[in-house]
Amino acid sequence: MDEFTSLAENKQDSSQKNDDNLSLFKTIIRKDTYFVMSPKQLDRLKLVSEAVFKLANETLLEIINQNEVESWMESRYGIVKSLWKNGKTGINLIRIDFAWDQEKNFKVLELNSPHQVGWILSGLVEKEASADKIGIPLAPQPMFYANYVLKKLGPKVAIIILSPNAEYDLLASQIESLGGKAKIIYLSEVGFQDIIDFAPTGLFWRCLPGLIERSELIIKISNLRIPQIPSFEYTTGAIPKTYLLSKSDFTKNLNLLEQHKAVLKAGDSAGGKEVILGKNFKDSWEDKLKEIMNSNR
C-alpha cells in the first residue's frame, strides 16, 4: 500500500484549522505531510475500507474452495486452507494483493492479516480483527518476537532499517519494556557511526531487497563482528510475504526464490500502484483517496 494509505496514525487535532471535527491523517513516508478530512469524508473512506475488507475475505474463500490449487499457493497458504476446510476460521484478511508473474499470469501476491498499522480501523474491521473473534490466529503472542530478539542478540540491540516503519518502533519499545535497550538506526554512513557509538550487543536487520543497493556499507558493518540476525518477513503478520523483486534486479535476485513461486511486484509499484486490491479493485489507493477527498466537501 502506498503512503496515502498509512492511516493508522489517525488522530484528532483541534489546533488544525481550529476545528475539532476534522480528522488529521499522517502519512508514513512523508512524515511532514497530512491530510485533513471532514467527518463526511472520513465516513466515506471507512466505507471503502470495509468494502475492500469484505472483498478480501470473499476472495480468500474462493481460493480455499478451489478443488485444485497451484503448488506455490498450496505450500504458502496450505495451513489457512486446512483450517477453513476443518470448519474453523483460520484467519480474517484485511487485504489480498494481486500481481502478475513473468508470463503475465494473474497471481495472488500476498495475503495480509489484520493489524492496526496502515489501515483505517473502521467498525467492521475492528470487530472482525479482534483477537478473540478471528478463530485460530496464526500470529505469535505479542511479546514473542521481542523475547526472541533479546535471546539472540543480548540486552542492547541496534535495529537497522532503510525507512520509517511503525512495527520496528513497536519492537524497540517492547525490547525496552523487557529491560533491554534498543535503538533504531538508518542504514547510512552516519548510521555506521551511530552503531559504533551505541555499542550494541547485536544487530537486527530489517530484510528488504533494497539492501542489495547498499552492499558495500553492509560489508563494512559486518566487519564490526557484532552478532546479528535478519528480521522475519513481518513482525506482526501471520503469513509470509512474497519477496519483493525490483524490475532492474530481477535476474540477479531470482535465485532467492524458486521460479515457480516467484510472483512479481515491480519495485516502482511497491507503493500499491498497479496492484489490484480485493476483486477487480483496479484504482490505486492514491487515486481512490484523492477521489474521496475531492468529493462532497
From TrEMBL:
In terms of domain of life, where is this protein from? Answer: Eukaryota
Name of protein: 2914_t:CDS:1
